[in-house]
Amino acid sequence: MTRTATVHRTTRETDVSITIDLDGTGRAEIATGVAFFDHLLTSLAHHALFDLSVATRGDLDVDDHHTVEDTALVLGQAIAEALGDRSGITRFGDAAIPMDEALARCAVDAGGRPYAVLDLEFGTERIGSLTTQNVPHALEAFARTAGITLHLSARGGNDHHVAEAAFKALARALRAAAAPDSRRTGIPSTKGTA
User: Fold this and answer.
1) Which of 14, 53, 93, 133 has a Cα-to-Cα distance from 187 of 20 to 30 A?
2) All structural domains of the chain with their residue ranges
3) What does each C-alpha distance from 38 to 67, 94, 147, 194 come to in angstroms?
4) What is the pLDDT of residues 33-70, one digit of tens each?
5) Is the CA virtual torsion 25, 140, 79, 185 positive or negative?
6) Backbone CA torsion sign across 57, 108, 97, 101
7) Which of 177, 179, 180, 175 is nearest to 44 (CA)?
8) What class does CATH assign to 4-178?
9) In angstroms, rounded to a whole number, what is the distance separating the alpha carbons of residues 48 and 53?
10) Distance from the first to the final alpha carbon of the chain
11) Are the C-beta atoms of residues 5 and 19 closer than 8 Å to each other?
Protein backbone atom coordinates (compact mmCIF):
# COMPACT_ATOMS: atom_id res chain seq x y z
CA MET A 1 0.00 0.00 0.00
CA THR A 2 1.45 3.32 -1.05
CA ARG A 3 0.90 6.39 1.07
CA THR A 4 1.12 9.02 -1.62
CA ALA A 5 -1.05 11.87 -2.86
CA THR A 6 -1.06 14.52 -5.55
CA VAL A 7 -3.19 17.63 -5.04
CA HIS A 8 -3.67 20.56 -7.40
CA ARG A 9 -5.50 23.75 -6.45
CA THR A 10 -6.06 26.80 -8.63
CA THR A 11 -7.57 30.12 -7.56
CA ARG A 12 -7.41 33.66 -8.93
CA GLU A 13 -4.43 34.22 -6.62
CA THR A 14 -2.41 30.99 -6.82
CA ASP A 15 -1.81 27.75 -8.69
CA VAL A 16 -0.42 25.02 -6.40
CA SER A 17 0.57 21.44 -7.24
CA ILE A 18 1.94 19.13 -4.54
CA THR A 19 2.94 15.47 -4.60
CA ILE A 20 3.94 13.67 -1.40
CA ASP A 21 5.15 10.20 -0.45
CA LEU A 22 5.05 9.62 3.31
CA ASP A 23 7.41 6.65 2.97
CA GLY A 24 10.12 8.43 1.04
CA THR A 25 13.73 9.34 1.68
CA GLY A 26 13.43 13.10 2.23
CA ARG A 27 13.84 14.12 -1.42
CA ALA A 28 12.43 17.60 -2.05
CA GLU A 29 11.75 19.69 -5.14
CA ILE A 30 10.28 22.95 -3.88
CA ALA A 31 9.48 26.08 -5.91
CA THR A 32 7.08 28.61 -4.41
CA GLY A 33 8.81 31.82 -5.41
CA VAL A 34 9.44 32.61 -1.72
CA ALA A 35 13.00 31.41 -1.19
CA PHE A 36 13.01 31.09 2.60
CA PHE A 37 9.67 29.27 2.55
CA ASP A 38 11.23 26.87 0.01
CA HIS A 39 14.05 26.35 2.50
CA LEU A 40 11.60 25.56 5.31
CA LEU A 41 9.62 23.08 3.20
CA THR A 42 12.83 21.41 2.03
CA SER A 43 13.88 21.03 5.66
CA LEU A 44 10.44 19.62 6.53
CA ALA A 45 10.68 16.97 3.80
CA HIS A 46 14.28 16.09 4.67
CA HIS A 47 13.69 15.57 8.39
CA ALA A 48 10.27 13.90 8.02
CA LEU A 49 11.67 11.56 5.34
CA PHE A 50 8.77 12.54 3.09
CA ASP A 51 9.40 12.86 -0.65
CA LEU A 52 7.85 16.20 -1.51
CA SER A 53 7.33 18.09 -4.74
CA VAL A 54 5.84 21.60 -4.53
CA ALA A 55 5.19 23.93 -7.46
CA THR A 56 3.41 27.18 -6.63
CA ARG A 57 2.75 30.20 -8.79
CA GLY A 58 1.25 33.03 -6.81
CA ASP A 59 0.54 36.74 -6.88
CA LEU A 60 3.89 37.71 -5.38
CA ASP A 61 3.48 41.14 -6.94
CA VAL A 62 0.90 41.69 -4.17
CA ASP A 63 2.88 40.04 -1.35
CA ASP A 64 3.77 36.54 -0.12
CA HIS A 65 0.56 35.91 1.86
CA HIS A 66 -1.56 34.03 -0.68
CA THR A 67 1.38 31.99 -1.96
CA VAL A 68 2.42 30.82 1.51
CA GLU A 69 -1.11 30.24 2.80
CA ASP A 70 -2.33 28.32 -0.26
CA THR A 71 0.80 26.18 -0.40
CA ALA A 72 0.27 25.27 3.25
CA LEU A 73 -3.41 24.46 2.65
CA VAL A 74 -2.57 22.14 -0.25
CA LEU A 75 0.31 20.51 1.66
CA GLY A 76 -2.05 19.71 4.51
CA GLN A 77 -4.62 18.30 2.10
CA ALA A 78 -1.94 16.13 0.45
CA ILE A 79 -0.84 14.73 3.81
CA ALA A 80 -4.45 14.01 4.77
CA GLU A 81 -5.02 12.16 1.49
CA ALA A 82 -1.78 10.21 1.84
CA LEU A 83 -2.75 9.14 5.38
CA GLY A 84 -6.09 7.86 4.10
CA ASP A 85 -8.34 6.65 6.91
CA ARG A 86 -5.25 6.74 9.20
CA SER A 87 -5.41 3.01 9.90
CA GLY A 88 -2.27 1.53 11.38
CA ILE A 89 -0.40 4.78 12.07
CA THR A 90 1.32 5.63 15.33
CA ARG A 91 -0.88 8.77 15.48
CA PHE A 92 1.10 10.80 18.04
CA GLY A 93 4.55 12.31 17.68
CA ASP A 94 6.68 14.89 19.43
CA ALA A 95 10.10 16.44 19.08
CA ALA A 96 12.36 19.05 20.64
CA ILE A 97 14.85 20.52 18.18
CA PRO A 98 17.68 22.92 19.06
CA MET A 99 19.30 25.11 16.44
CA ASP A 100 22.13 27.07 17.99
CA GLU A 101 20.42 29.48 20.42
CA ALA A 102 16.89 28.56 19.25
CA LEU A 103 14.75 25.75 20.62
CA ALA A 104 11.51 24.43 19.12
CA ARG A 105 9.10 21.97 20.71
CA CYS A 106 6.36 20.25 18.76
CA ALA A 107 3.65 17.69 19.52
CA VAL A 108 1.16 16.40 16.96
CA ASP A 109 -1.89 14.18 16.89
CA ALA A 110 -2.48 12.91 13.35
CA GLY A 111 -5.79 11.35 14.30
CA GLY A 112 -7.99 13.65 12.21
CA ARG A 113 -8.77 16.47 14.65
CA PRO A 114 -7.63 19.83 13.22
CA TYR A 115 -6.37 22.33 15.79
CA ALA A 116 -3.32 24.53 16.19
CA VAL A 117 -1.73 26.11 19.25
CA LEU A 118 1.29 28.13 18.15
CA ASP A 119 3.77 30.14 20.17
CA LEU A 120 6.51 31.38 17.86
CA GLU A 121 8.59 34.37 18.81
CA PHE A 122 9.95 36.51 15.97
CA GLY A 123 11.81 39.80 16.35
CA THR A 124 11.67 41.00 12.75
CA GLU A 125 9.01 41.44 10.09
CA ARG A 126 10.74 39.35 7.40
CA ILE A 127 13.18 36.53 6.86
CA GLY A 128 14.36 37.07 3.31
CA SER A 129 11.18 37.46 1.27
CA LEU A 130 9.01 35.57 3.81
CA THR A 131 6.88 37.70 6.11
CA THR A 132 7.24 36.29 9.63
CA GLN A 133 3.48 36.79 10.24
CA ASN A 134 2.90 34.18 7.56
CA VAL A 135 4.84 31.45 9.38
CA PRO A 136 2.22 30.81 12.10
CA HIS A 137 -0.55 31.54 9.59
CA ALA A 138 0.78 28.83 7.26
CA LEU A 139 1.15 26.34 10.11
CA GLU A 140 -2.45 26.92 11.22
CA ALA A 141 -3.71 26.49 7.65
CA PHE A 142 -1.64 23.31 7.28
CA ALA A 143 -2.98 21.81 10.52
CA ARG A 144 -6.55 22.53 9.44
CA THR A 145 -6.40 20.73 6.10
CA ALA A 146 -4.05 17.95 7.31
CA GLY A 147 -6.48 17.08 10.09
CA ILE A 148 -3.83 17.23 12.77
CA THR A 149 -3.67 18.79 16.19
CA LEU A 150 -0.47 20.82 16.28
CA HIS A 151 1.20 22.31 19.33
CA LEU A 152 4.38 24.15 18.38
CA SER A 153 6.53 26.66 20.20
CA ALA A 154 9.89 28.16 19.30
CA ARG A 155 12.17 30.78 20.85
CA GLY A 156 15.59 32.15 20.02
CA GLY A 157 17.61 35.22 19.17
CA ASN A 158 17.79 34.63 15.41
CA ASP A 159 14.53 34.51 13.44
CA HIS A 160 16.02 32.22 10.76
CA HIS A 161 16.91 29.71 13.48
CA VAL A 162 13.51 30.03 15.17
CA ALA A 163 11.59 29.31 11.96
CA GLU A 164 13.88 26.53 10.82
CA ALA A 165 13.91 24.82 14.21
CA ALA A 166 10.09 25.00 14.24
CA PHE A 167 9.82 23.28 10.85
CA LYS A 168 12.40 20.65 11.83
CA ALA A 169 10.48 19.92 15.03
CA LEU A 170 7.26 19.66 13.04
CA ALA A 171 8.99 17.31 10.60
CA ARG A 172 10.24 14.95 13.29
CA ALA A 173 6.90 14.94 15.09
CA LEU A 174 5.03 14.24 11.83
CA ARG A 175 7.49 11.50 10.92
CA ALA A 176 6.78 9.75 14.24
CA ALA A 177 3.00 10.26 14.08
CA ALA A 178 2.63 9.09 10.46
CA ALA A 179 4.87 6.05 10.94
CA PRO A 180 3.18 2.66 10.67
CA ASP A 181 2.65 0.96 14.03
CA SER A 182 3.46 -2.73 13.56
CA ARG A 183 1.30 -3.66 16.55
CA ARG A 184 -1.77 -1.73 15.44
CA THR A 185 -4.53 -2.80 13.11
CA GLY A 186 -7.28 -0.39 12.23
CA ILE A 187 -7.73 3.21 13.25
CA PRO A 188 -5.78 4.28 16.36
CA SER A 189 -8.79 5.54 18.31
CA THR A 190 -11.05 4.02 20.93
CA LYS A 191 -13.92 5.53 18.87
CA GLY A 192 -13.02 3.25 15.97
CA THR A 193 -13.02 6.19 13.58
CA ALA A 194 -10.77 9.16 12.91
Assistant:
1) 53
2) 4-178
3) 11, 23, 23, 31
4) 999 999 999 999 999 999 999 999 999 999 999 999 99
5) positive
6) positive
7) 175
8) alpha beta
9) 14
10) 19
11) yes
